[in-house]
Write a structure and sequence with these properties.
The protein is α/β, with parallel strands linked by helices. It has helices at residues 13-31, 54-65, 86-93, 107-116, 131-145, 161-173, 189-198, 209-213, 233-239, 247-250, 273-276, 283-303; strands at residues 43-48, 69-74, 99-103, 121-125, 153-156, 177-180, 203-206, 218-221, 258-261. The chain is globular and about 55 Å long.
């Protein structure tokens, strides 16, 4: 197993399933009142360049919930904001903490930190990948549906970091995936090509969301303009208007289909309030599961449980 969690494509299906199974176990134990102390005396640094609600709080709650400690650093307020080389930051932080959780823009940032760090580096989000989020999404699907293997899983919207990590997850775990993205907003070409070589099941990229969602068991959407793309917001509102998940589009999915959204949602844009608040929506269970999957990740990478 890799010493770092930078992208889902770096792992085997068994390794990802083990993390999800452990997260489900930790969630059940927590609800049964069992207190966890596996990471007592250990520390992580949250090094964030992008703002966050769920990712920051869920990682902090996960670490504290395992008996550990958290140091939060806004990159702009650190020496990184003054141009300190990443390799220096990685080597210094490695002497202070047992793991570095990074939320940033470029994938090259987490890769360089991992290259020089002597402790695990965990990608909490880059513009290219969002592996921890997808693991919590997969956990939610398994929790609600029992298995991924025979489900029709659909992504509707921008071919962003979430879409890229869904593609890698489909290839690693071997489940079929259909994406509907506007022309010019498809997922990363290299990631898609590698995934298709690796995957035993089809990974399709369509243009028509109505075609993509037909018979879907799992429907996943995200904002149309991610952080750092605010200048494109108005243009994307026009380009993506037919990709909104409303009741009419959702009616083409199976009656028992579940709806995922990593939040925060722009209600009335990529998803209507009616669908987000509807009985098929599992977005708040999905948000809770971030904390449980982060517990499993931290336990595994910091304490070496599954290595």
């Amino acid at each position: 197993m890799s010493n770092h969690l930078l992208a889902l494509g770096d792992f085997t299906g068994d390794q990802l399933r083990a993390l999800i199974d452990r997260a489900l176990e930790l969630k059940a134990e927590s609800r049964a009142g069992i207190r966890h102390r596996q990471l007592e005396g250990r520390r992580i640094c949250l090094l964030f360049e992008k703002p966050s609600t769920r990712t920051r709080v869920s990682f902090e709650a996960a670490m504290y919930g395992l008996g550990g400690q958290v140091i939060f650093m806004n990159a702009k307020e650190s020496q990184l904001g003054r141009g300190e080389p990443l390799k220096d930051t990685a080597r210094v932080l490695s002497r202070y903490v047992d793991g570095i959780v990074v939320r940033t823009f470029g994938q090259e940032v987490v890769e360089e930190l991992a290259r020089y760090a002597t402790v695990p580096v965990i990608n909490a989000l880059t513009d290219l990948h969002h592996p921890c989020q997808i693991l919590s999404d997969l956990m939610t699907v398994i929790e609600k549906k029992g298995s991924l293997d025979e489900l029709k899983t659909v992504w509707i919207g921008d071919g962003n970091n979430m879409a890229n990590s869904w593609i890698e997850a489909a290839a690693v775990l071997g489940f079929p995936l259909t994406l509907a993205c506007p022309a010019g907003y498809s997922p990363d070409t290299a990631i898609l090509e590698r995934a298709r070589v690796r995957s035993p099941r089809p990974i399709l990229v369509l243009r028509d969301p109505a075609e993509a969602i037909r018979g879907a068991d799992v429907v996943n959407v995200d904002v149309w303009a991610s952080m750092g793309m605010e200048a494109e917001q108005e243009r994307r509102l026009v380009l993506f208007s037919s990709y909104q998940l409303d009741s009419e589009l959702l009616a083409r999915a199976r009656e028992d289909a579940i709806v995922l959204h990593c939040l925060p949602a722009h209600r009335g844009e990529e998803i209507t309030d009616e669908v987000l608040e509807g009985e098929r929506s599992v977005v708040f269970d999905q948000a809770e599961n971030k904390m449980h999957i982060h517990k499993a990740i931290l336990e595994s990478f910091l304490a070496g449980r599954s290595r």
